[in-house]
Amino acid sequence: MIAQDSKLHAPPLPRFPARRLLSSGDRDRIQAALAADPPEISDFTFACLWIWRRTLPVEIAALDGGGLAVVLRSESCGAYALPPLGAPDPVAAAFHLCAALRETEGPAGCLRLVPEALARKLERHGLRVEDDRAVSDYVYRAADLIELPGKRYDAKRNWVRRCLAAHDCRYERIAGPVLSECAAYMDEWCLDRECEEDADLCAEASAVREAFASWEALGLHGGAVRVDGRIRGFAVGEPLSPTMGVQHFEKADSKIPGLYQVVNQWFTREEFSGAEWVNREEDLGNPGLRKAKQSYHPARLVKKLVVSV
């Protein structure tokens, strides 16, 4: 849990290649580095790094010349760095990161989640670039998710109407007692789906609980749908750039037909109506999740590339 005064206790940053674990006090410096070049990639927020840190431990350091090095450790692919954050010369900083990680971590050391524009510049300078379709982010027009316009959204509108005709549904922002109710519902959702038997669901549940535990300090946005008096679904996100919001989590009772569609529409309407775009993250190669994300007709996919020496 992040204390409200945590920014007063941020440890000093070592110089890369030395690094230390991400601290709750690093929020301001991470946000400042990202603000220098507002991202479209869903992973690039302090909140996202913080809530997933138990599954993907995060280390940070200061780069010579300015900017931040952020290194994550994954059980599946070892240590990798994000593209340099806030570096005045991102190409030079990326070369430095790649070379240092290859030296310390071996052939697996690389950059991941690299925006396509930077990756192509690095490719022209001799680095190797690989695509990973499973982690590409789906980006939608916010107005489409809110209005569900035209024939291609007929089925979505029908599901929403069906749910609202059968139930008393009300939208409530996540705060105060609603936060506790959402946390309790997440526990119920996990119990119903036996999250403890699935490593991916277990990791996601841990991240959701981290988000709820430090809700105000992380500056997250969220909304819950109360169905016939009980919280039966919620969504969590945050601003990603001046024109784009990101939705990190969406949970609903699948036994209530149309509730997922209601949660999606109402959350976007209430939290991101002023945004032009909404990033709803990746499908991780899951066929069911891919079909669901494609059914909302994304405007585009944002590639996240792998760059190595």
Major beta sheet, strand line-up: 1-2-3-4-5-14-6
The percent range for helix content is 25-40%
CATH topology of the largest domain: Aminopeptidase
Overall number of structural domains: 2
Structural class: alpha+beta
Uncertain runs are none
Total beta strand runs:
14
CATH second-level architecture of the largest domain:
3-Layer(aba) Sandwich
Strand content: 15-25%
The CATH class of the largest domain, by name, is Alpha Beta
Number of helices: 11
Write the layout of secondary structure elements.
Elements: E1 20-21, H1 27-35, H2 46-51, E2 58-62, E3 68-74, E4 78-81, H3 90-105, E5 110-114, H4 116-124, E6 128-130, E7 137-141, H5 142-147, H6 154-166, E8 169-173, H7 177-193, H8 199-213, H9 215-218, E9 221-227, E10 230-241, E11 244-252, H10 259-271, E12 277-279, H11 287-294, E13 300-302, E14 305-308
Parallel strand pairs: 4-5, 11-12
Antiparallel strand pairs: 1-2, 2-3, 3-4, 5-14, 6-14, 7-12, 7-13, 8-9, 9-10, 10-11
Question: What can be said about this structure in brief?
Answer:
With 309 residues, this protein is α+β, with helices and mostly antiparallel strands. It has helices at 27-35, 46-51, 90-105, 116-124, 142-147, 154-166, 177-193, 199-213, 215-218, 259-271, 287-294, and strands at residues 20-21, 58-62, 68-74, 78-81, 110-114, 128-130, 137-141, 169-173, 221-227, 230-241, 244-252, 277-279, 300-302, 305-308.
